[in-house]
Design a protein that fits this description.
By secondary structure, the chain is α+β, with helices and mostly antiparallel strands. It has three domains: about 5-240, Ribosomal Protein S5, domain 2 (2-Layer Sandwich); about 245-255 and about 460-540, Alpha-Beta Plaits, CATH 3.30.70.3170; about 265-460, no CATH class. It contains 19 helices and 16 strands. The protein has helices at about 5-10, 15-25, 30-50, 130-145, 170-185, 190-205, 210-220, 265-290, 295, 310-320, 330-340, 350-355, 370-390, 395-405, 430-440, 445-450, 465-475, 500-515, 520-525, and strands at about 55-70, 80-95, 100-105, 115, 150-160, 225-230, 240, 245-255, 325, 365, 410, 420, 480, 490-495, 525-530, 535-540. Strands 1, 2, 3, 4, 5, 6 and 7 form a seven-stranded mixed sheet that branches. The chain has a five-stranded mixed sheet with strand order 13-14-8-16-15. A hairpin with an 8-residue loop joins strand 3 (about 100-105) and strand 4 (about 115). It starts with a helix and ends with a strand.
Length: about 550
């Protein structure tokens, strides 16, 4: 219908419209009012930019919160995530001339952009700001349908997802943009296909992300945890885990944000690169330890390397044969040896070009600590859902805590309380101690030596996130960690609902002291954002 008609339906609380909103967002009146306000803002932006009488269709995509299984969706790991009411919304009208014209509701922050679909090529992602995600979505769809003569679209966008906050605002923008393009061109796509197209679009925009974020957005269900392997789109097989009664997932904003561009992108991509580099080196070590060729051939990604396939002692021994860090020239030699052994089909140059397309490259790559974290987190990503299903919330929280320790970059000085740099290298001594614990036959020692409790050394946190995680644990969280890609953004804490008020107050005090906010300003950062069946999700 016309944009002005949509506005009337939202403004007048049309019963049919409200029923539709309740079916999407639930019955919480505050949430529905927030959604109505966002739709109204986007429609008003459309009217101002393109006119009120054009026929408009609406597209939306929720944010996501990953509870457990961080940094491993591109390594074959499983995702344990929920969608959240904050979202991207687009008001769209079809154009016949092949132009795409985009206006953002935050016009002072995000400039308008325009482009012709026929003129797009993969090189367009090399330049631009926020609009590169919109462009990437159109390029991915154009590659999928190379003979189609595309219609363009007038697009008004708006969002209340924190930008760079770890709730995947970029993926929500990608999904929204691609769905708008597909709808305007009468294209029908399966959800699993959209998941792959979004990854392609994100890679065009410069990030080497996996499939987990968009899989959650497209397959998630309100009131349930989405659990699935997400190594490839074909592997997505959602299991929906009821959220635990009596617990809330607290989402706390650090007020620091990442961009995953420039040096941040190099740091992010170097860890993904490290896993791709380290896997054939680890398989080489397994071969030297006598593991048979059939088993080695079945280990296609880090998620395949579990104690069910490879004895845990051999996993730790194999890690011991991998250097802590490698210079790129050293990495090339080690990788080429693995190629000769038939343990990888990629060339080293292909790998470097894949993960560092801009030409900016690190001098050295952390290998052993990143791989240990990845192996452990892949294991945690499977066990976490099992513990929630069994009602073993404390064990689920223990896995969240172990995951954050692998991301930690700082720790409080016990005497001064000041947070200073902390390093947790995976040393030969640590691996020897784990082997001794496994062989001890003492229950406590063998338990702590299990793969899922190992931290590794991924280092995607910040001192602010580390401090917030520690505050959450002090206030009774059974588990707390960063969420998303890290390097800023938000942290999450799983805690009993009667503990939430104390944590809220502690976060208000933390932000007031750290950011020099007034008491009123700090208190306004605390708001209940969404309640879902079985558990609360509360944003701070």
């Amino acid at each position: 219908m016309a944009a002005e008609q949509w506005l009337d339906r939202f403004a007048l609380a049309d019963p049919t419209q409200e029923s539709s909103l309740r079916s999407i967002y639930g019955v919480d009146r505050d949430i529905i009012l927030e959604r109505v306000n966002l739709f109204g803002t986007v429609l008003a932006t459309f009217c101002h930019a393109f006119g009120a009488r054009q026929p408009v269709f609406l597209v939306r995509c929720p944010s996501r919160v990953n509870w457990e299984g961080h940094h491993v969706d591109h390594q074959g790991g499983s995702y344990n995530a929920t969608t959240q009411a904050r979202e991207f919304v687009a008001a769209c009208s079809e154009r016949q001339d092949g132009w795409v014209i985009v206006h953002n509701a935050e016009s002072l922050r995000f400039r308008p952009c325009r482009f012709r679909v026929d003129d797009l090529s993969p090189q367009h992602h090399r330049s631009g700001g926020w609009e590169r995600f919109v462009i990437g979505a159109w390029i991915a769809l154009k590659e999928r349908f190379p003979t189609l003569v595309f219609h363009g679209v007038n697009l008004a966008l708006g969002s209340d997802i924190p930008t760079g906050g770890g709730m995947s605002s970029s993926h929500a923008l990608l999904v929204t943009s691609l769905l708008a393009a597909a709808t305007a061109n009468r294209l029908t796509l399966q959800r699993s296909e959209i998941v792959s197209l979004i990854q392609r679009a994100d890679w065009l925009a410069g990030s080497r992300t996996g499939l987990g974020d968009q899989a959650t957005m497209l397959f998630g269900r309100r009131g349930f945890l989405f659990h699935s392997p997400v190594g490839t789109a074909d592997e997505i097989s959602p299991e929906y885990i009821p959220l635990p009664d009596g617990y809330a997932l607290m989402i706390a904003d650090s007020l620091t944000h990442h961009t995953l561009a420039g040096q941040e992108a190099v740091a992010y991509n170097s860890r993904v690169f490290a896993c791709r580099l380290a896997l054939p080196l680890l398989l080489q070590g397994f071969a030297a330890l006598g593991i048979d060729e059939t088993t080695i051939a079945s280990l296609r990604c880090p998620a395949d390397i579990s104690p069910q396939k490879v004895p845990l002692e051999l996993i730790y021994q194999g890690l011991g044969a991998i250097p802590s860090d490698l210079r790129l020239d050293e990495a090339r030699l080690r990788f080429q040896e693995a190629c000769v052994s038939g343990l990888t089909s990629l060339s080293f140059d292909e790998l470097v070009e894949t993960y560092f397309p801009s030409g900016e490259r690190p001098d050295t790559v952390p290998v052993r600590g990143v791989l240990m974290y990845t192996l452990a987190e892949c294991r945690r990503s499977v066990l976490f859902a099992q513990h929630l299903l069994e009602g073993n919330i404390s064990e689920a929280g223990r896995l969240m805590n172990a995951g954050h320790e692998g991301d930690r970059v700082s720790r409080a000085n016990p005497e001064t309380g000041e947070y200073t740099n902390a390093e947790y290298p995976v040393t030969d001594i640590l691996l020897k101690d784990l082997l001794d614990d496994l062989r001890s036959q003492e229950p406590n020692r063998t338990d702590r030596a299990q793969l899922q409790y190992q931290h590794g050394d991924y280092r995607a946190s910040t001192p602010t996130l580390d401090q917030m995680v520690d505050i959450a644990r002090t206030h009774g969280a059974v588990g707390a960690s960063l969420t998303g890609g890290g390097h800023g953004g938000v942290m999450i804490a799983l805690m009993q609902e009667d503990r939430c008020d104390g944590f809220r107050e502690a976060m208000c005090f933390f932000h007031r002291e750290r950011s020099c906010l007034s008491e009123d300003q700090a208190s306004r950062t605390v708001q209940k954002c969404v309640t879902v069946e079985g558990a609360g999700m509360i944003s701070i």
